[in-house]
Structure prediction request, 147 residues.
Amino acid sequence: MAWRVYLSGEIHTDWRDRIRNGAAERDLPVAFTSPVTDHDASDAAGDVLGKEDSGFWRDHKSAKVNAIRTQSLIEAADIVVVRFGEQYKQWNAAFDAGYCAALGKPYITLHGEEIIHPLKEVDASAMAWAQTPQQVVEILQYVTTKD
Prediction:
C-alpha cells in the first residue's frame, strides 16, 4: 500500500524536498501531494473568473479555487504534515490543521520551539510535533513500514 501524504504550509524553504528526498532514500511506500507552492500562481488562481477591483474579492475567488485542490487532497491523504515557518504567519496552514482535526485526519506539525505557544491548540490535536524534516521522515518510516 502506498500511503498518501499531503505536505501543507510554508512555501519559502526546501522542507518539502527534504522530506521527499528522505522518503525516497529510504524507499518508503509514500506518495506526496501539496498545495500550489508558486505564490504568484496561487494568488492568481481565481483570476480566470474575471478581474476584480478589490483585493478582498480577488483573494476570495483565488482562495475558493485553491480550496478545490487543498480540500480534495487533504481528504484523500492518509497523513498530513503541516509546516509553520518562522518568517511568515501561515494562516492557511492553521486552517488546514483545523480541517484535518475536524475530519479526524492524522496530522503532524512541523515547526521550531519559538512558536510553540501560538500553536498550542494546533499541536494539541496533532499526532506528533516534529522540529525537522528528518523527524518527519523517521515518523513516516515507522508508520508505513512496521508490521
Q: What stands out?
A: The chain has a mean pLDDT of 96. The CA atoms of residues 110 and 135 lie 9 Å apart. Strands lie at 3-9, 30-33, 79-83, 107-110, 128-130.
